[in-house]
Design brief:
about 450 residues, alpha/beta, three-stranded antiparallel beta sheet, 13 strands
């Protein structure tokens, strides 16, 4: 049994089936199918053109930081050497076409709450690019699994207007985590908010990724400030990017650079900062989306098709378990048969009149299951760009859809991430090279 992933965005009854994220639609001849190279993407209308072009550029860094492991990055080595990962830095340099002298700093050792990262200077574009790697090591898995919701607040100093971050009740949130990490969080708060500060945003965040971002911030902030202090870097902007776990850390890092944690007693980085993430898990509750938008914090999240990680948080898994329990309690044989028939219905591209009753039943079932979806959910902040693979076959325009992607900007982010998802593809759509290759498809604006 599958669940619709995008309730609130499109009509549940008009989609191709429960859990299938492809919208059942005919291609509009007025829509242009374009090859996704930077040159042709620029032909797309509106600001989405620029976003796609830049996202494509930085996806290469987010993929390249994985090295040559399991063919994530193809660099001509034999299959035996693929498993040895001889030199991660050399693979990154080769894949991103970066010179050794342009590497500013790096950390290639994975530890719990301490992600792999690389800092790169791109002199032609006047950029410093900060890249975080996603999950590739057991230590990264520990960071992912510490998915409790930590309550945090963003404070504003009343006289200067400077922003900072504060963790609420850290002693209650984390009792059994490393002392060093705990002390950082305890140090970022106090029993009372100082009188010269006011709370402008408050909500919840993914605890494990928060810890990882704090560790990375402590290691990197001094190096970034030193680089930007150089005369040749006075006009440089900062790009922060990453895939999966790395994208989550990149999102937190973007926030920390503009609203530093109390503990570190650092000042905001007064630079243009842009963040591009790919397949990132939800890391903030919906309350922070408004904060990011009103303060013009540039975060662009790319989500590919059925990627389960982009919708996975503690709240969505709790709801999924509740839904499974509710379905398991159904004893009526006729209802069970109709639920089983939904799988056949889901595979159909066009519904017949005979299917109308079953479609109505699917809608009623979904509405019934919504009462079990009450857990606190996290979501993405900033812009969410969703790529959806077109169904196989050809449209009436004659365009082959085997390598076609519909792309849309998700505006109601809370609705998009409010429902658990199961699909046949799951983690396959999450792999980093899928995100890089999707920009090479023919792109159609939905």
């Amino acid at each position: 049994f599958f669940f619709q992933a995008e309730d609130g965005i499109r009509d549940f009854c008009l989609s191709r089936g429960l859990g299938d994220v492809y919208k059942r639609q005919e291609l509009d001849p007025s829509k242009k199918a374009l090859k996704g190279s930077p040159e042709s993407v620029n032909l797309l209308q509106g600001n989405l053109s620029k976003i796609l072009t830049e996202s494509q550029t930085y996806s290469r860094y987010a993929t390249g930081i994985y090295g040559d492991f399991l063919n994530y990055v193809v660099s001509g080595k034999s299959r035996i050497k693929l498993l040895k990962i001889a030199n991660k830095m050399n693979e990154f340099l080769k894949y991103t076409e970066t010179k050794q002298e342009d590497i500013l700093f790096s950390s290639w050792k994975s530890r719990p709450y301490s992600p792999v990262y690389v800092g790169v200077r791109n002199a032609p574009k006047k950029q410093i690019i900060l890249v975080f790697r996603g999950t590739l090591h057991w230590a990264d898995g520990i960071t992912d699994c510490i998915c409790h919701n930590a309550k945090i607040s963003i404070l504003r100093e009343k006289t200067t207007g400077s922003l900072s971050i504060r963790l609420e009740n850290p002693e209650e949130e984390i009792r059994n985590y490393p002392k060093k990490a705990l002390m950082k969080l305890v140090g970022s708060t106090s029993a009372r908010i100082p009188e010269n500060y006011e709370v402008i945003a408050s909500g919840h965040a993914h605890l494990g990724i928060l810890l990882a971002a704090l560790e990375a911030y402590e290691q990197i902030i001094g190096k970034l400030e030193a680089e930007f202090s150089h005369e040749e870097c006075k006009d440089y902007e900062l790009i922060v990017t990453g895939h999966s776990l790395g994208g989550g850390v990149a999102t937190f890092m973007t926030l920390f650079l503009m609203a530093p944690p109390h503990y570190f007693k650092t000042t905001p980085l007064k630079r243009k900062i842009s963040c591009y993430t790919y397949g990132t898990p939800p890391v903030f509750s919906q309350e922070f989306n408004n904060f990011f938008n009103t303060h013009n914090i540039s975060v662009v999240n790319t989500v590919f098709s059925d990627d389960i990680v982009s919708r996975a948080c503690l709240g969505s898994f709790k709801d999924l378990i509740s839904i499974i329990k509710a379905l398991a309690e159904i004893k009526d044989e006729h209802t069970i048969q109709r639920l089983q028939s939904l799988e056949k219905l889901r595979k159909k591209k066009i519904y017949s009149e005979e299917d109308a009753g079953l479609v109505e039943f699917a809608c009623e079932t979904y509405k019934h299951l919504q009462q079990f979806m009450n857990s606190l959910k996290l979501c993405h902040v900033g812009k969410v760009i969703h790529f959806k693979m077109a169904p196989e076959g050809k449209s009436k325009t004659g365009v082959s859809e085997s390598n076609v992607c519909f792309v849309e900007e998700i505006h109601r982010v809370g609705s998009y991430f409010s429902t658990p998802i199961l699909s046949r593809n799951l983690l396959h759509h999450h792999l980093p090279h899928q995100y890089e290759q999707v920009f090479n498809a023919k792109i159609i604006i939905s």
